[in-house]
Amino acid sequence: MGTITANGITMGYEDAGDGDPLVLVHGHPFDRSMWAPQVTEFARTGWRVIAADLRGYGETAVVPGITPLETFARDLTALLDALKVDQVVLGGLSMGGQIVLEFYRLFPDRVRGLVLADTFAQAETENGKKVRNDMADRLLREGMHGYADEVLHKMVAPYNVQALPTVAEHVLGMMRGAPPEGAAAALRGRAERPDYTDLLSKISVPALVVVGQDDEYTPVSDAEFMCQRIPDSTLAVIDGAAHMPNLERPAEFNQLLHRFLNGLAPRIH
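Now predict its structure.
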């Protein structure tokens, strides 16, 4: 745990373990603690796991306005530069997965493998842009609590809210604790994101595409769309999970990630 100044802002981050770097990017409206089971597991098994709070979330500075995906990607690059980390395996969930795609678009030579969890590649629709901007307005007006309560059962499958109350409380706590200005800025930036469909066929590193079987936000069809276009990709559908399989089914998620990581070519030093 620590903070560092990178790209002109203070960033909170985890840097655990020793070995090849694995960088994990959280989604909206969460923070780096959503990766706690993976930080623990992979730091224990020979990886250096880096998980940062994105701009506007957790312990990282809040910058009101609009935060494009490119800004998030450049923040991560600046953090890696500050930590003297060059080539990484890069994984992200939901918005984090779109930031991963943007990072790859900008800095392909720094990536040796991609993990795309519960995310999708297409640009926003006109209606989607309105929905995101309206939600940004609402979060600034009302705060996070009402929104968090409404979406909990889509983030975590309803049966897991009942069966895994500690997980549900963690997810609800992250959402309620997110700074409204940061969450709104991310929503506005994400509304204007580019379409990554054409990028998918140009990805030249192995990719693991993971999705919860019962994910409503990014259904299995979105994962299949990406996997059909990324040349060296593997699709994994996790039963008994919705939008956050890394927390709802951490053992299964970690097993898939171990298998993927173990199959990568050695890092170029």
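The longest strand covers residues 9-16.
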